[in-house]
Task: structure prediction
Amino acid sequence: MENNPQISVVVPLLDEAESLPELHAWIKRVMNENNFSYEVVFIDDGSKDDSWKIIESFQQNDPHIRGIKFQRNYGKSAALHVGFAATKGQVVITMDADLQDSPDEIPELYRMIMEDQFDLVSGWKKKRYDPLSKTIPTKLYNGVNRMMSGIKLHDMNCGLKAYRSDVVKSIEIFGEMHRYIPVIAKASGFGKIGEKVVQHQERKYGKTKFGLDRFVNGFLDLFTITFITRFGKKPMHFFGLFGSLFFFIGFCFALWLGIDKLFIDTSGRLIADRPEFFLSLVAMIIGVQLFLAGFIGELISRNSSIRNNYLIEKEI
Result:
């Protein structure tokens, strides 16, 4: 195998022993038919079945195969992060191990990266073989994602994606942020993001490893990644703005109550007996707390080891 192959295929997996032989043969056939130099990096995310034994058997007979096994299950984001770090190819392609992603899409994905000069190409499973309990929340999730991120992808979380090598070496995937790799890539300066309609296969073996809780977690992670990408290095711009706004509203209420008490209201009622007093007090307290949160965030950001971690594209 060449030191720097054309394509690196990263396959995160968990308990997919039944599908691995067929997937390996499928990838190998596509690569040989197109005369690609390649490597396949299998990331075993703590499988309890025979997945790792099968990967070891591949490696004994196929020099294109590489494998990494986790001690326990860490999640798809961790698997992709480690897999990205291990790749050597000019183009990196990710796909799931359950045979629902088709390796036949690889040649066109590779062409879109190399010839059309995309930084990232995301698959779009336009026709899905999933139950309504999965497809309807997915459409809602993708709609909200497009609105908040500004990235016009129909299927943000599709496992079948292609990247320039520079992209995967420059971004960091953590937590469950694998759903938002296009958002992270865009925030890192890789803005040429494309989309390709890909074939979606019915699941042949086993069952999905993701439950309905991923949709709740997905929306929470969306707010997290939106905040981090926009205000991660300038938290005062967010907290300071809303803190000042709340404090100003509360101060205006308090000022109006004082003027009303001194010059307008002659009934002798105490300011503390009026609900507006407590609204103004709460607003000013919230404003001060938000402002302090922004100030503390700025101190943390200032002392962060990555505060000046900028990506340099070229240097002469």
